[in-house]
Please model this.
Amino acid sequence: GGGIFVSADATCILEAGTKINGNKAIRIKGHNSSGGGIFVDKDSGDTKFGTLTINGTSPKPVIISKNTADYGGGVYNRGTAAINHAEIKDNNVQYHGGGMVNAGTCTMDSVRIENNEASNQNSNVGNGGGIYSDKKLTLKDTTVIGNTAKRDGGAIYIDDSVFNMSGSTVINVEPSGGATGPSKNDIYLTNTAFITLTGALT
Model:
């Protein structure tokens, strides 16, 4: 957690107008870094989960931008995250989840995920430019645009988990660089992952 660390016993509430900008999670004793902007933890027994609540508004969204880490540039969530009216943009990682890694339960409503990148310049790794999720992810009225991954899932990478979409969720897929080029704002699902659409997408 370069900017904020939320322990398994803790709750973090970010109100309208808050900005989490320009933070960096650093490696310690060879361990990869996670959550450039915010890291939400859980305990080892999966009985306690940190909670992140973001209460932005349309005129004053919470902004999480220009943060860096190995995993989860903007946010790394192992607990529970409810993100409303936020912008997760211009974050960068070496491996997975340029904007966010979701390894817990995450619900987003009216969020803009833009221009995040998962890319290692020294090797062919980097999945989930916007979001990398291997647990439960729900997007409502959310826009995902302009994100890039070195390998798969420029927009969103879903790894053996559930991805729910509803409302006016928009994911603008862009032409990629081909088999050896970057993955630009597309969705990648592993063999056991699936997307659930709730109601009509408008």
User: Anything to note?
Assistant: The chain has a mean pLDDT of 91.
